[in-house]
Amino acid sequence: MLPLALLACGKRDDDRNLDSLDNELVEAGSGGTNASDPAMTSALHDQIMVDPALAQQANADSVRPPAQPYSGGVPPVGIAQPPGGAASAGAATSETLKPAPAPASKDCPGCQAARESLTLGALASRQKDKRTSGCAGAMRYSARWAERLPADVPLYPGARVVEAAGADTDACHLRAVTFSTSAQLQTVLDWYYTRVTISGYSAEHQSDGTEHTLGGTRDRDGGAYVLFLTGRRDGGTDVDLVANNGG
User: Based on the structure, what is the number of domains in the chain?
Assistant: First the structure.
């Protein structure tokens, strides 16, 4: 029983010590006469300073809802067309357009290849030109390829690029671009026909009634190109262009 009694006494002494410490802390915090820590007293009782100019910056990096719903709108295809509309695209290049010849026949195997190809690489692999089809496996996708088309088979003025791919090796200088324009299909066809024939390419026009192709080669350097054109309901044209002689 004696050890238990001593233990009880020890606990009471500890309790008294803890009570004394608590009281000292309370007095120090309340600025009482027994306060022993001026720094603590000052920190607890001084007025909190707030800068109104900085108050609005609190939580600046937090995620907040937008002020208005995000827009999913797409700019119109003709937003980058030259003044005067799509019909003046040929004039904007200081060229007199030559009318493309009528389709050679209603048989258009290229039209079917374009419909069945889900990617530009697949479209390039189905071309008659062996250099073009052989380079299709080396193609890589990037919008920058649209800026590296051959100078004699360029992007149509004001066109909106949808997708582009290409390959540059010792044997391959392949470019492929999908783009849209508000110009009518016949205008786009005539513009490219004028460009390629001036540059020495042959030009064969085929159509199945709704889709058109214009393609050819050039003997002096083995260059080749093919365009797949489809008219849209709004009067514009969707085009896939494949050229193997890129810069």
Answer: 2
Q: Are residues 128 and 229 in the same domain?
A: yes
| Model pLDDT for residues 119-170, shown as the tens digit of each residue | 787 888 877 777 778 888 888 999 999 999 988 999 999 999 999 998 888 8
pTM higher than 0.90, yes or no?
A: no
Contacts 24+ apart (CB under 8 A), 167-172: 167/135, 167/136, 167/138, 167/139, 167/140, 168/246, 169/135, 169/138, 171/131, 171/134, 171/135, 172/131, 172/134, 172/135, 172/138, 172/244
Cβ partners under 8 Å of residue 247, min gap 6: 148, 149, 150, 151, 173
pLDDT band at 183 (very low <50, low <70, confident <90, very high): very high
The distance in angstroms from the start CA to the end CA of the chain is: 103
Q: What is the pLDDT of residues 219-235, one digit of tens each?
A: 888 888 999 999 999 99
- Do 104 and 153 lie in a common domain? yes
226: Cβ contacts below 8 Å, ≥ 6 apart: 110, 127, 129, 132, 213, 214, 215, 216, 241, 242, 243
Q: Which domain holds residue 166?
A: 77-244
Residue 90 lies in a domain: yes
Q: Please indicate, yes or no, whether residues 130 and 200 belong to a single structural domain of this protein.
A: yes
